[in-house]
Amino acid sequence: MAFTLYSLIQAAILCINAVAVLHEERFLSKIGWGVDQSVGGFGDEPGIKVQLMNLIRSVRTVMRVPLIAVNSVCIVLLLLFG
Amino acid sequence: MDYTATQSGFRQRKLQPSMHLRNSPGDGPDGSQLFEDTSRAGPGPQAGYRNQQAGPQTAGFPGQTLLSEPMSNLAMAYGSSLASQGREMVDKNLDRFIPISKLKYYFAVDTVYVGKKLGLLVFPYMHENWEVSYQQDTPVAPRFDVNAPDLYIPTMGFITYILVAGLALGTQSRFSPELLGVQASSALVWLIMEVLVVLLSLYLVTVNTDLTTIDLLAFAGYKYVGMIVGLVAGLLFGKPAYYLSLLWCCAAIFIFMIRTLRLKLLSEAAAEGKLVRGARNQLRMYLTMAIAAAQPIFMYWLTFHLVR
């Protein structure tokens, strides 16, 4: 249970990597979580599934490029310092 | 502005007599001022704020009478203008990352508020009105409303928890200074994770609420009070006392969170106790209960390994 802030950062990077790796047409559409299936009604009830799909899509869009940089830094640091 | 007011008030007490004696900087500003009376806080803040820039310079040259008069005055004026410019730049840039003005609201507390809030955290059963009062669309400062969240109690509670944890480890001869850091970072990580999970669940359930992230941080930090009570009881009276007091504080914090969050998360009708149908309100109710139930779990998780 000896968590440090560094382990939290590591866990966050791994989770965001996992979300970024989900492919749009090969995987998400197959299980009904694609972008085209998220246009629900115009009521005020988006529902949890739609919110999750929006979240996944926005995380993938926003974090693609920063993730490249962060992952490279992580790889270099791990190679140098183990 | 409280922080700078008290700070400048303190310096102003040191400086106001010496402002008359500015031409002889050798006069120690910290001699007789120790016994100055503190009732002169009225005109203090404004004058003190102006003096604050000159403060570091005059207080910093107590014995340098070697400098000639015009040169030292010029140097002091230049130094003070540089200092004020630097301070402006730091303030402007810092405000972009950390909303300092919003943070100041959360620290605007006084002793009466802290006392009442601590009492509420341990015994919330008699309190009737849980609504936060507003003043022209902005929430009232915690000093004037006991229901408003603040960051003073969570911060102090966190620090006290780490100290008490160190004490508990010391009584079991398990203490080493690194362990304090480990405890601190561990508790901080759990706090951050809890706030993130609550934020995520609030986003998923699309609750229209005015709870900010800092509010959630404040609510998550209130459990440290109960943890400290349990730990101290366990240290003084042994394990049964720890379990009893922890049980009491867990129940108290559960009720406290439910009553506070009910007003913020649920719609008005449901918050008043009427049974409103609909899947959405049910989901919100579950979310409130889940957030409130997570507090006792964390309280136990973070303290049980400290009491043997």
TrEMBL record, chain A:
Membrane spanning residue stretches: 6-23, 61-81
Q: Which UniProt keywords apply?
A: Membrane, Protein transport, Transmembrane, Transmembrane helix, Transport
**What GO biological process terms does the UniProt entry carry, in alphabetical order?**
endoplasmic reticulum to Golgi vesicle-mediated transport; protein transport
Q: Which GO terms describe its cellular component?
A: COPII-coated ER to Golgi transport vesicle; endoplasmic reticulum membrane; Golgi membrane
Q: Where in the cell is it found?
A: Membrane
Q: What is its main location?
A: membrane
The record describes the protein's role as: Regulator of endoplasmic reticulum secretion that acts as a key determinant of brain size. Required for secretion of extracellular matrix proteins. Required for correct brain development by depositing sufficient extracellular matrix proteins for tissue integrity and the proliferation of neural progenitors. Acts as a regulator of the unfolded protein response (UPR).
The family line of this record is: Belongs to the YOS1 family.
Q: What is this protein called?
A: Immediate early response 3-interacting protein 1
Query: What organism does the UniProt record list as the source?
Result: Pundamilia nyererei
Gene name, Swiss-Prot/TrEMBL: IER3IP1
UniProtKB/TrEMBL annotation, chain B:
Compositionally biased residues, Polar residues: 1-10
Q: How does it sit in the membrane?
A: Multi-pass membrane protein
Question: InterPro entries, from UniProt?
Answer: Yif1_fam
Keywords, comma-separated and alphabetical? Endoplasmic reticulum, Golgi apparatus, Membrane, Protein transport, Transmembrane, Transmembrane helix, Transport
Indicate where this protein is primarily found.
endoplasmic reticulum
Where it sits in the cell: the answer is: Endoplasmic reticulum membrane; Golgi apparatus membrane
Give GO BP annotations, semicolon-separated.
Answer: endoplasmic reticulum to Golgi vesicle-mediated transport; protein transport
Q: Which domain of life is it from?
A: Eukaryota
Which residue ranges does the record annotate as region Disordered?
1-61
Tell me where the transmembrane regions lie: 151-170, 182-204, 216-236, 242-262, 283-302
Q: Per the record, what is one GO cellular component?
A: endoplasmic reticulum-Golgi intermediate compartment
Q: Does the keyword Hydrolase apply?
A: no
* Cell membrane recorded as keyword: no
Family the UniProt entry places it in: Belongs to the YIF1 family.
Functionally, this protein is described as follows: Has a role in transport between endoplasmic reticulum and Golgi.
Return the protein name. Protein YIF1
